[in-house]
Amino acid sequence: MCAACRRAAGLLLKQRPSSSSYTSSSNSIFSRTHRIVDGKTDVFRSAAISGTSSMMHARTRCTFHTNAKNEEEHRDSMKRMSKTRNFHSTSFAAGGVSTHKRAEKKRFSAEAATTSTEEEMGETDVRAKKDETKMKKSAQSYMLAHPTYDFGFIEQLKPKHRPPQGARDYVSMFAVWSARKGFDTITSYSHEKSLTKDQWLFRFIFLETVAGIPGMVAGMLRHMNSLRLLRHDNGWIHTLLEEAENERMHLMTFLNMKQPSIFFRAGVLAAQGVFFNAFFFSYLISPRTCHRFVGYLEEEAVRTYTHALNDIDSGGTDARQWAKERAPKLAIEYWKMDEDATIRDVLLAVRADEASHAHVNHTFSSMGTTQKNPFVKGESHLPENFVEPPPGFVPSEENRVAKDADSF
Q: What is the C-alpha to C-alpha distance for residues 92 and 382, in angstroms, rounded to an integer?
């Protein structure tokens, strides 16, 4: 054997693994090598075979180590899986208790939420009722007055007339007669003629748009006079503004029953423009004449509403339905009537208001302009004889100028 072959055989012997698992395969390789060498094979062929054998040994060792590593990783993964199973089983066992507790908590929270919701709903209802009451009170609080009457007394109320007692009275009465005659002619109205509901509402609405002017104009001028002269008004302003507001509430009540047309509104605009300016300049000239004019005007209003009540009671037209129709809510709250009040009751209250205005204005016309107002603020004033001053009141300008500071 040559030196090269011996060296190759020595290398193969050194690289042989010590494990018994590889002994048989190594011996077989070396036996083939020896046979090849003994057969005087080519040296280079023997070297190639030896190199192949070494590569196979290395590959076998790598595969062995890889398998061992895979087995170790497999064992580690199995351990982790077993731990995970134990953890999940423990968690599931504990989860049964926790799930039951959670269910109870949910039930208790639901009951608590229901209770709290009911309490909140109850509180909401209470607050809503309080707010409604507050709104009603606020709606009533901005009113200057709420006239209330004994319906047994105002049912027996009849039209009255104050005979003229001087030039001022005759002028006032003639002005009222002229205005009434012209309006009755335009609307074909007479006291002997029965009207339907629409015809009555047409007349009521138009007259109330005019009737609310005198109290406001008189109150405004007396207010400006008090500011200009730097002195108290002696209580007239409150009563005059209450009258203006009362007439306006008549209008608002009737507007709940009928809405006028655009032509009607144009007529109201024209009538207000004429009457406002005429009364304004007349009051600057003679306030007492103007109050007498309003007194006579209110006497005619009492006659008109008495006629309407007769139409309701006689049943000649559809106005008889007002004896059973429920009054508007606004009217019930303003006059503080019963909930089952009818429109006929409203007309009784309106007629009483007009009689009260006649009483107040006839009294103001008989007074001096610097006398203290004899009427209590916020109260209705309706004696049986409403065209005369209050009993015991002596209208005179002498020594009747109010000195007390609360007379404003």
A: 90
Residues 150-181 have pLDDT tens digits of 999 999 999 999 999 999 999 999 999 999 99
Sign of CA dihedral 400, 401, 404, 405: positive
Helix and strand totals (H; E) in the chain: 12, 0
The DSSP secondary structure of 321-353, one letter per residue, reads GGGTSBPPHHHHHHHT--TT-BHHHHHHHHHHH
User: Could you give the dihedral angle defined by the CA atoms of residues 126, 127, 128 and 133, in that order, rounded to the nearest 10 degrees?
Assistant: 90
Phi/psi class of residue 230: alpha, beta or left (left: φ > 0; alpha: ψ in -120 to 50)? left
Backbone angles phi, psi at 371, to 5 degrees: -75, 155
> Higher confidence at residue 103 or residue 284?
284
Token match 């007009």: residue?
A: 354
**DSSP-derived secondary structure for 207-271:** HHHHHTHHHHHHHHHHHHHHHHHTS--TTHHHHHHHHHHHHHHHHHHHHTT----HHHHHHHHHH
* pTM score above 0.85: no
Q: CA–CA separation, 323 vs 341, rounded Å?
A: 9
Contacts of 243 (CB under 8 A, 6+ apart): 214, 215, 357, 360
Give the distance, in angstroms, between the CA of residue 41 and the centroid of all CA atoms in the same chain: 115
Residues 6+ apart with CB under 8 A from 97: none
| Residue 139 one-letter amino acid | A
